[in-house]
Amino acid sequence: MVPGLECQSHAAHGAPLDAPPLLFVHGAYCAAWVWEEYFLPWFAQRGWHATAISLEGHGDSRGHAWLAALGIDDFARNVHAVVKTMPRPPVLIGHSMGGFVVQRYLEMHRQHPPAGVALMASVPPFGINASAWRMLTTAPDLLAALNLFQANEHYHPDLDQAQRLLFSADVDRERLRDWVRRFQPESMRAIFDLSMISLFPVSHLPAVPALVLGAANDQLIAPHEVVATACRLGVTAEILPDMAHLMMLDTHWEEAAKRLEGWLRATWG
């Protein structure tokens, strides 16, 4: 769709819905593949045209050589480049860091907003510092493993660490092993952006249809942080039970997909 940016798309099966297309934006340390595993085919089978972008420096997109210099605004521009190729404004669906990228996209494109947004376990408006401090006190070994992975591309957290940080206890171990191998270091500039945003006032966002979901067992984004994100968008946060941070891959991923599709159909169906 856009030269140099990987996009994985699934056309709607059967009679497509008269509704906006969906554009999924991944979080830190991964790429479009996290949506390809379950969500893209699941939504396509239900009549939605579903696309996932790999942000610059991620997956098979350009930019790995300069990943460290890429910031949140660069990622929001990546999203905009894909949006411009779509036949109508999409619903932007962002997870974790991708949720903050979507928030920044709304700030940067107030005059031409997307059809709507859905944020899943999103980084809150005040960034990641509270999450880092919480992990320092409750799970310092996991924070150390995350920092070591960021500093050394040849190091990967072991399966138990990855499961405790990102997944439910009953996640499929074989799938987990494959997913951990696909994780990649994140942009230092993006992490800096997410750390420094707390120093600036939170701006209002344009009014668009919005859904904000959190995960009850999330080790990274606490429920009160999900509430803060929802307040910024003028909606009520929803915390899904029996769910960990990587909601689109976790054991009960279909519950998150069903809630998202229920909202989509209620808004555009």
From TrEMBL:
It comes from the Bacteria. The keyword Signal does not apply. Signal peptide: none annotated. GO terms for molecular function: peroxidase activity. Residues 22-257 form the AB hydrolase-1 domain. The keyword Manganese does not apply. Keywords: Oxidoreductase, Peroxidase. InterPro entries: AB_hydrolase_1, AB_hydrolase_fold, Carboxylesterase_BioH. This is Non-heme chloroperoxidase. It comes from Rivihabitans pingtungensis.
